């Protein structure tokens, strides 16, 4: 709009189509995704531009957005502690800082908040930015390499973004959640623990039983020795070192 002042100040809005999946920056007209996870195909959006004059003039057009189901596996998420509306306005500057600190061509694919409701989105101080990087040969940089360099350059990136947002900025790369164990692996672990517990219990029983037998065996041996010491042993040595006679003493014959 070539007019000056309010007559030339445009505001953009989505007035028709599949508006639940997309939103628009009312100042720049930039369209971004809100929730298209798991969806593919072509979406039709009716976009309106309106000036701010006394007699408000408007114009509309249809925007077709095609979502490809075969998304890249090298997309990396960066979480900023800034409101989504602020990040959207500064997306070009955010991209510039990332390219400068990472040394690659960086593209901001989408900017979104965890909250889908627009009022909640405007008040949440956490924005998720999906990016993808390309090297000098225009090849996608593997996601793990991007994450590693984001962590290495985090301090420099946060310092650069602080100049962009005029406020302290935290730029974090969230850790992927650990994959849950499969049912087969869980069952194998449980079975292994049960077998190990059973074996330990059996081993403890055997050791206790063996110890008990040794204890009672010693007691029986002591009893036998006591009994034997109380009985005249015909084969025992006499005081002279010779064997005692097997004959009965004379007084026994009488």
TrEMBL record:
SUPFAM superfamilies attached to this UniProt entry: Cadherin-like
GO BP field: cell migration; homophilic cell adhesion via plasma membrane adhesion molecules
Domain Cadherin positions: 1-77
Keywords from the named record: Calcium, Membrane, Repeat, Transmembrane, Transmembrane helix
Main location: membrane
InterPro entries (alphabetical): Cadherin, Cadherin-like_dom, Cadherin-like_sf
MF terms in GO: beta-catenin binding; cadherin binding; calcium ion binding
GO CC field: catenin complex
Localization of this protein: Membrane
Matches recorded under Pfam families: Cadherin (PF00028)
Signal peptide limits: none
TM segment ranges: 187-208
PROSITE patterns, per database record: CADHERIN_2 (PS50268)
Top-level taxon of the source organism: Eukaryota
Protein name in the entry: CAD87 protein
């Amino acid at each position: 709009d070539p007019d000056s002042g309010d007559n030339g100040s445009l505001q953009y809005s989505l007035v028709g189509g599949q508006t639940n999946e997309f939103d628009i920056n009312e100042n720049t007209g930039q369209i971004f995704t809100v929730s298209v996870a798991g969806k593919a195909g072509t979406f039709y959006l009716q976009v309106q531009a309106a000036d701010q004059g006394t007699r408000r003039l408007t114009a509309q057009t249809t925007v077709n957005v095609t979502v490809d189901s075969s998304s890249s596996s090298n997309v990396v998420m960066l979480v900023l502690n800034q409101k989504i509306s602020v990040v959207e306005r500064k997306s070009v500057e955010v991209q510039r800082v990332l390219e400068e600190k990472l040394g690659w061509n960086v593209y901001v694919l989408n900017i979104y908040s965890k909250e889908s409701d627009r009022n909640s989105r405007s008040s949440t101080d956490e924005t998720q930015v999906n990016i993808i990087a390309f090297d000098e040969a225009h090849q996608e940089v593997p996601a793990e390499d991007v994450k590693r360099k984001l962590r290495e350059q985090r301090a420099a990136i946060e310092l650069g973004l602080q100049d962009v947002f005029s406020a302290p900025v935290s730029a974090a790369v969230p850790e992927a959640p650990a994959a849950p164990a499969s049912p087969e692996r869980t069952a194998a672990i449980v079975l292994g623990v049960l077998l190990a517990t059973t074996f330990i219990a059996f081993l403890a029983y055997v050791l206790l039983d063996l110890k008990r037998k040794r204890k009672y065996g010693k007691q029986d041996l002591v009893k036998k020795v006591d009994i034997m010491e109380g009985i005249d042993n015909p084969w025992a040595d006499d005081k002279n070192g010779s064997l005692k006679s097997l004959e009965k003493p004379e007084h026994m014959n009488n």
